From TrEMBL:
EC number: 4.2.3.5
Recorded catalytic activity of this chain's protein: 5-O-(1-carboxyvinyl)-3-phosphoshikimate = chorismate + phosphate
PANTHER family: CHORISMATE SYNTHASE (PTHR21085:SF0)
Function: This reaction introduces a second double bond into the aromatic ring system.
Protein family: Belongs to the chorismate synthase family.
Cofactors demanded by this protein: FMNH2
Residues bound to NADP(+): 47
Name used for this protein in its record: Chorismate synthase
Free-text comment on the cofactor: Reduced FMN (FMNH(2)).
Lineage: Bacteria, Pseudomonadati, Thermodesulfobacteriota, Desulfuromonadia, Geobacterales
Amino acid sequence: MSSVFGTLFRVSTFGESHCAAVGAVVDGAPAGMRLCESDIQPQLDRRRPGQSALSTPREEEDLVTILSGVEGGVTLGTPIGLMVYNRDQRPGDYQEMSQVPRPSHADYTYQVKYGVRASSGGGRSSARETIARVAAGAIAEKYLAERHGVEIVAWVDSVGALEAGAVDLERITRQQVDQHPVRCGNPTMSQAMADLITQVKSRDDSVGGTVSCVCRNLPAGLGEPAFDKLEALLAHAMLSIPASKGFEIGSGFSGSRMLGSAHNDPFVDKGGRLGTATNYSGGVQGGISNGEPIYFRVAFKPPATVALPQKTARFDGSETILEAKGRHDPCIVPRAVPVVESMAALVLMDLLLRQEYRKR
């Protein structure tokens, strides 16, 4: 779908990069939950542009307004409308690119699909669209935390060839991750990653990376046996994020190089519940959560819009040299951290509501 995600907890997003506003309509949030803008704003602050020298210089406060579905600070059970105004728009930056599809961007594919496209900022393919996901995800996170004690923490696992190294999945926190603008959670590697991003930015280029995420305190039993497997829905969610190019859960691709005897997760007693001694499964077996932490990783390509001269072609096929204008991240992964957390929250919220509905 172009705008709707979820089954029982449904999120519809709207808006483009340089239009008046972006936002979301959240349908399916349970009634009676306390909710106000201050519950949503912290995640938007972590996602917003201009928060450090490592991100785009576009200046946006990204302040959210709740339009509907909440009265007296309590959810009504009706659709919740969320809106964030675009304040620092510069559509004129894209005039030169109106006739030149940017290499590896969505300009050409949108034009082919619709016969028209947003002329500035990439429209719906822009990372501005993720504001709506993060705002909606914050509502899901609040419910998950209050009702089930769920904790969702993402961090930058790599930038280019630099890797953050192993982390303690049981203990890593957002406070730890946010101690450095890179958000890698490893103080030793944070500055090296920041230096790499700064070097790439100084050359008008960009660099990719990966974001890892852990979801703790989830009950066993979430996910469906066939097409709506938990990991399949997470993959759907993560690969819908702009610039994402890969998803793996648990041991991921490295597990394909292991023997079954080494890869299997033996069952053990964990204080009255059955758990596993290892977690190569990433908390999911047969498409259903097993009560262990869910752990996955998402790969992001280098941002496509770079100011370096690139030989390419106009829409009419004639050759040209493009030096893209505009304000863009040299590396998307530090700001992708709250987006990954929010998309995970949307998936888990929907599955928990399905499970609760099934038990009625």
